Amino acid sequence: MQTDHSKPLSLQEIVHKRPFRSDDLSPEAGELGVFQDKVRLFVLAAPALLLALGGCDGAGTGGNTSSAIPGVPTAEGKDPAQAKLDAYTEGYNKLIGTFGLPETAENYAKEDIPNQSPTDNVSISSGWLEAALTKLKEGRALPGGPADLDKAGDGLIAALDKVVTHVKALSVYYDSKAYREDKLARGKQEDAAMRAEFQAALAAAESFDTILKRERDARAAVEIEQLRKDGNILAYSTKLAVQRSESLIDLFAKPEDVKNPQILARGTALVGEIEKLLTDQRAAYAAAKAAAKTPLEAPSSSYESAAGDLTDLVGKFRDLKQSGDVENLNDMVEEYNDAIESLNNIR
């Protein structure tokens, strides 16, 4: 079967991890103490950036595994459930990526409002939260998909609405230096509520991620099998390598796991699978590149970049085995993120 590599890869919502820091829970830090930037202790894998969806030789039509009944295809040829999942995925990407919710909450906590004085320079930002919220609302408005995904979406949207409204109002207060006039009274009075709203939004994001991941995993199993049946080795091996890399990172649920021999042994087994898949992926990429008669027929160089990123991830895992240092796990997450960024460039 001839594969058209000019079409985007359909790597169904694979996770792009967002490293969190679990740090000092000081009284000054309040509930958002986990975002204080004193020591990078451990990566928590809960929030995840998801790989954008697309079509690849029809592989994206591998079936809808949610409880929703497939409806009339959209203008793009997707069933409504997948279109909703696409929109939710894009919104979630914005939410937990650069200038997203974790970073915005962390930056707010770093301002340490209770310990500031009117003579200090205080500045806060809403980041890109409003753009994420808009996309999540678009996803919610679409038909299709399981009811519990929309229910979790409602909770996340409501929590984000509060955060965006409050942080934008406080941004005006701080940017205009009004806090110098009232001796920072408003800022200190509203600080606890602002922190609580951030915390509620983060909790809602984690709940939303759990259901989104369930939908992603269910669809991915069908899609991977379809890619295999279609003989699309480049897409198949790439997708499966990324999925196995996610599983590798997810082995480490708590800090002491990086020194657990049983977990490290499981990780070593996964690395063997990843390296075999990457060998197949490189061979398929080289073959597709050699067979291309025009640049448009050639596979995206992002495949090659992603393979390099995942190879680096494997190297960081071996560093972790030798050092027992959780910082190497952070490095693995960063390499994983780079791979997803590369694959999200395929259009």
How are the SSEs ordered, and which strands pair?
Elements: E1 15-17, E2 48-50, H1 80-96, H2 101-111, H3 129-141, H4 147-175, H5 178-181, H6 185-230, H7 233-250, H8 261-291, H9 301-323, H10 326-344
Key words describing this protein structure:
347 residues; disordered N terminus; globular; 10 helices; two-stranded antiparallel sheet; mainly alpha; 2 strands; 2 domains
Overall radius of gyration: 22 Å
Number of individual domains = 2
Global outline? globular
Overall mean pLDDT stands at: 81
Helix content: 55-70%
The neighbouring-strand order within the major sheet is 1-2
SSE-based structural type: mainly alpha
**SS summary, helix count:** 10
- Note the gap between the termini: 22 Å
Binned strand content: under 5%
Q: Main β-sheet: number of strands, strand sense, barrel status?
A: 2 strands, antiparallel
Task: Write the H/E string, N to C.
Answer: EEHHHHHHHHHH
The number of strands is 2
Low-confidence parts lasting 5 or more residues at pLDDT below 50?
A: 1-16, 18-50, 52-75
